[in-house]
Amino acid sequence: MESALTRRIVFSGDLGAPHSPFLIAPVSPERADVLVLESTYGDRLHENRLNRQERLAIAIDRALADHGTLLIPAFSVGRTQELLYEIEDILHRKALLGPAQAVCDDDQFLPITWPQVPVILDSPLASRLTKVYRELQDYWNEEAQVRLGHGRNPLHFEQLITIDSHAQHLQTVNYLASTGRPAIVIAGGGMCSSGRIVNYLKRMLADQRHNVLFTGYQAKGTPGAAIQKYAPSGGFVELEGERCMIHAGISTLGGYSAHADQVDLLNFVSGMSEWPEEIRLVHGEVPARKALARELLSLYRAQNRVVDVLVPTGAEPLTRS
């Protein structure tokens, strides 16, 4: 039993975005007197899954039309697996999934026609983690379970080729760079500052046949951010001390963030049976915290409720409804 003097303080931690096929959506606690709430994306809304998958399909079609490779820098945990999940669905809907008909060249195994276009996962860490994800299928959401029930395996489909050794990696880079053969490559190094994506970029970034698709935030000062910034003017980027011209197509696709967006954060609060009387916003830039604070106050006012919302600067509450 809680006494009248007891206050229940809830820390949200990093709230995940809902609708991930591999994770159960965040569940609001029953109640809180004080909520310490993250606000990483308190000032923005993520692109919905349907739109992002359509744009991913367009990016794949564009790469194939250019007769080159689509390079996707990706983080090993979460991002890679969601990309594989959606690529498998795109190929399934296009009725393009099929067994790989390959040619062998120095242990290289690559499909040769578009219906068997290779989806190449070139990241040892991401490959190991993807295997762990497959072992945890019992925890996937309902949509993913339906696909499994229909005999599909979104993380282990026939066109998926995993590159393990460094020698295989270099062979694949050289093969795709020299032939311009259509392929989809997901490689480690989400911000292009390290990982196997760097070798692909060094060989292929100057070739207009190829395309690079960013699906995650590129921090200021990283090669990924420089590519995004200087690509429109045909500029260059420094990769491991080497100046690389940017002639490949560059695009950015939103909606893959693992963090909850503004609506998700508001829903976390409104999903409680008893709403908190005090909310402290943390883990976000000042503009994001202030934007979320305004939305929380509006939410409470709409329900004739009272709340103190604090942006943690040591000051008094931002305002009180």
From TrEMBL:
InterPro entries: Beta_Casp, MBL, RibonucZ/Hydroxyglut_hydro, RMMBL
SUPFAM superfamilies: Metallo-hydrolase/oxidoreductase
Keywords: Hydrolase
Superkingdom of origin: Bacteria
Pfam family, any one: Beta-Casp
Domain Beta-Casp, first and last residues per copy: 80-227
Protein name listed in UniProt: MBL fold metallo-hydrolase
Family matches, as Gene3D superfamilies: 3.40.50.10890
GO MF term (any one): hydrolase activity
